[in-house]
Amino acid sequence: MSTDPPVYQCPVDAPIQVLGGKWKLVLIFYILQEPRRNGELRRLVPTITQKMLTQQLRELEADGIVTRTVYDQVPPKVVYDISPEERERLEVLIQPLCDWGMYWADKTGARVLALEK
Predict the structure, then answer these.
(1) Angle subtended by helix axes 50-62 and 24-33, to nearest 10
(2) Residue 7 CB: number of other CB atoms within 10 A?
């Protein structure tokens, strides 16, 4: 296994590689609001499969974006939160994306389910 640091084509390539895909930014949006348990995330993002949710959370954890806290109790309790080192930068990244998303939803007449709850 190579230990060489990653190589990116341009500065935009780094966030696309780390945060890209269908679900990671959606999960980050919800976890930024408050720490979340697995079941909460499944309810908030009902179209994600359990397998994909687990995979995406593991990748975010491996990259140091998300922390996973396991509480020693029965039944087991696992809580996901944004890494303190990444919170501020992610907040300033996600807010403009949300702003543009609201603009685009308004422009196209789309619904935003997170705002309907």
Answers:
(1) 80
(2) 6
